[in-house]
Amino acid sequence: MNAVELRGLTKKYEDFEAVSGLDLSVSTGEIFALVGPNGVGKSTTLKMIATILTPTAGTISVFGLDTVRDAARVREVISYLPEEAGAYKNLTGREYLDFMAMVFLKDPARAAEAVKFGVELCGLGDKLREKIKTYSKGMARKLLLARAVMIRPKLAILDEPTSGLDIINGYEIRKTIKQLAAGGTTFIISSHNMAEIEFLSGRIAVINKGKLLACDTPAALKAKFSTQDLEEVFVELAG
Fold this sequence. Notes:
Blueprint: E1 4-13, E2 16-26, E3 31-35, H1 42-49, E4 57-62, E5 65-66, H2 71-75, E6 78-81, H3 93-105, H4 108-122, H5 137-150, E7 155-159, H6 167-182, E8 186-190, H7 194-200, E9 203-208, E10 211-216, H8 218-224, H9 230-238
Parallel strand pairs: 3-8, 3-9, 6-7, 7-8
Antiparallel strand pairs: 1-2, 1-4, 4-5, 9-10
């Protein structure tokens, strides 16, 4: 069974079709990237997989569960981090992790274990005692990423996962994603950072105007367009 399957996925807003007949599959434990220019349906697709938006047509299956019919059960096995995610700014970082762990896991013992992992992931140290409203953008993003993966979801959906992070912190987050995927977590990520996409992803889907243009490994895409630069592939397909 694939972790995720999209079949004929379509999303319309009155006369505008944001996503048009998308067919994709993602294997368990795969890091799958969705790339394309701004405003072409990437975030809309991620939100439909995360059960936040309902498709106009087509289906999405997450570990065999339909995202419309079985939405509540899907939410039990996924975690979603949008590009413009926010946190409760009057909580400390640690209070936020504690609160979110209980929201997702309910069980105090499991929540405590998740928070321990989240503290390690975010690497904020004593800053976790301070209120989130005092955090820089990079610090807040690290906290939010920790929240998204500390519960060890079967599927993590990450929109621009390292947005706002410096080189070192971005590298550490990418290593963590790789390690979690090796342990069986499936990732769907969207990013404009082609170096990040190439480092992380087993396969890349390029979309434009809501339609799938190509889906293959980074190496195969570069070979097809006779280039060593993934950005050139992107420009050729979506430019």
